[in-house]
Design goal:
By secondary structure, the protein is an alpha/beta fold. It contains 27 helices and 24 strands. Strands 3-4-2-1-5-7-8-6 form an eight-stranded mixed sheet, with helices on both faces. α22 links the parallel β15 and β16. α7 packs parallel to α9, α14 runs antiparallel to α17 and α22 packs parallel to α24. The protein is globular and about 100 Å long.
Length: 717
Amino acid sequence: MDAIDPTRGFLKDVKRIVIKVGTAVVTREDGRLALGRLGALCEQLQTLNYQGYEVILVSSGAVGAGRQRLRYRKLVHSSFADLQKPQVELDGKACAAVGQNGLMALYDTLFSQLDVTSAQLLVTDNDFRSPEFRKQLTETVNSLLSYKVIPIFNENDAVSTRRAPYEDSSGIFWDNDSLAALLALELKADLLVLLSDVDGLYSGPPSDPQSKLIHTYVKEKLENTITFGDKSRLGRGGMTAKVKAAVYASQAGIPVVITSGFAGDNIVKVLQGQHIGTLFHQDAHTWVSNGELNAREMAGAARESSRRLQAMPVKDRSKILLDIADALEASEKVIVHENEADVINAKDAGYETSLVSRLALKPGKVSNLAKAIRVLANMEEPIGQVLKRTELSDGLILDKTSSPLGVLLVIFESRPEALVQIASLAIRTGNGLLLKGGKEARRSNAILHKVITSAIPENVGAGLIGLVTSRDEIPELLKLDDVIDLVIPRGSNKLVSQIKSSTKIPVLGHADGICHVYVDKSADMEMAKNIVSDAKTDYPAACNAMETLLVHKDLMENGGVNELLIELQTKGVSINGGPRASSMLNLPAAPSFHHEYSSLTCTIEIVDDVHAAIDHIHKHGSAHTDCIVTQDREIADIFLRQVDSAAVFHNASTRFSDGFRFGLGAEVGISTSRIHARGPVGVEGLLTTRWIARGSGQVVDNDKGVVYTHRDLTHQA
């Protein structure tokens, strides 16, 4: 017998129950009615009826049953020639009419055998718009229940004004799950039970061996982390519809349990308080231990897991990364599916084109991420490297070694691939990690986090990488300067600025990506056109894309500027001008020199020489990435030495400013800070140092007991 769940003590007070049985339970794989399961269901309802419960049944299955009957009828009345023609899909409303008759006849027969009376009530969405109907409905149901009659509800699909059964999800209710939730509220039920073809709600598709049954649904914790499988085999919603209905009803005060309708006694077990199915309750968040929702505990779990990770042999840590790469490739289909859903939702919500572009995982992106992780896995071991070795005195050796930072908090917007890159770098460097992505990438982040953590062995713990699902947790996390060692924001200027002003924890990142390309008078114009075009159009939404093009004034006279403008305009780039350029070239005025377009738009300005270009960059740039195109090596050296940016290039596109392209394997972001790490931050940027001393009994004794040699042994074998 399943254990009694102490959180389900409220069930002893339940009297009125709404039970919804889904199409997958009512019908078999071939579409015929499942007589055995329906018989077992009716026996359970009879038991409850005799025990004094008021039972209301909402039954799906009419359309599926009717379709089976009409297919047979059509086959019987078709000639051989008719069967050779393309077969037209059967009318769903006709299927509903035929199936409802047969389904109710079967319920009547089964209940009659058990000495129970049932009643049929067909409703449509429009019915509930009438207050008079709702009042009469309650009176009728109360009257039936007083006679121990079991009301059986179904949507009257045959005359519904929906376009077609299972295709239109508009209205007050949109399927039998939402109808059951509506009836539970309308009829003041004490409990709603949704019967499914699986044991309850899982953390992922039930077919995935990594998925786990969720016994209590906590909305604040789980709503952004669950990956749903395919919809119902024959019905219109599947588990997604059940969860939506369950959340709706439970938040309104009606407890809900989702459980399997395949077992012959699950409803009785639910009412006994046994630990089966998934419970939805408006107070569920108060039943879960604080540790599961507490920001401090989450950070502590990441630190403990990181220490276990650091203690593993080097090859075992590398194997985790290789397993993650394999898992990503194996899950590419579901990852792309979830990402496409995020992109559609972002477009429907009216997000900017640049954000939608950053959100989308382009074709081949998952495979490229897996390749980058394998490169990272095969890199030289970064932890414990001896950076400097010094003999302090005879027999006393001091090593300066590389060491993990500890626990990282990374807050990022839009780009779901950032989650993969950051997680793999954290594992490679032995750091614990907390991640908070933007709501626009909710489904992408949830599936990527699930795939990655499923590859982390249990002796390390999935707590190594925590996914923060609520925006409300961020302020609490930013207060934890004693357990979080570094915050890395990746996103808008506003996001980075807000975080920097809200925490004592060190922050690594950049607020803007105002990148410049300066084309000098000695530039090879074909090279210049290629570099400028690539820097702007290869990925306009990237932080390393060119936002301002600076050109030497002599290029106005020899036609070089026009060549550059034509090159950009033929690639669809809109061009604004600074004061000189807008006047001389009749261009629209730029909104500001410190403007990050993140789109196919840029600013152009005319400057006198390389020194004027450098002054402009220092005044208006963001110290991210800047480039000079010139054939004059002396001019190039001036630019490279004097431009104070994290990355400075000669005759190369700004788009090369990237951790993977730098050979770092991946990056957690690009830093414009001058402390610790600068530029693309890869493995080295996530490490700090420790001092390891090995002696043979030395003591200081006021510096009388030791003779210092301070001999550098770093390069000795």
